[in-house]
Amino acid sequence: MLGRDRIVMENAVIRATGRYDCTVGDHCLIGPCAHVVGCTVEDEVFIATGVAIFHGARLGRRSQVRIHGVVHIRTALPPGATVPIGWVAVGDPAAILPPDQHERIRAIQDPLDFPSTVYGVPRGEAAMVEITRRLSGELAAHGDDEPV
Fold this sequence. Notes:
The chain has helices at 102-109, 114-119, 128-140; strands at residues 7-8, 13-15, 23-24, 29-30, 35-37, 40-41, 46-47, 52-53, 58-59, 64-65, 70-71, 76-77, 82-83, 88-90, 95-97. By secondary structure, it is of the alpha/beta class.
């Protein structure tokens, strides 16, 4: 669902999945080449160029994710929060970390179980063969979809 008076710029992708709806509130701006999937974006949110917002994330009212920022799976970004250029928000509540903090990001992200959340494949079974089989089946169901 897309709210009123929202702006989605060129080459941005907004999509739901079989497990996660995607909602964008009123008065939001989604910049060029942003990827917004299976998440909730509340009102008056700014999502800059090249941002990635993943499955199950929630972006609070008037939050901002700046150029190439990431909001990881099942992350809750509080109202008014800012993810700086290139930084990563991860967890619930969100820790907002610079990209060079890989080990800290991974420690918070691991229990969120990316393969299960995104692909429906538990971490222990997350071989690429199973992931690609499952995902290709899900995507094939949308072969006749029309872009909006």
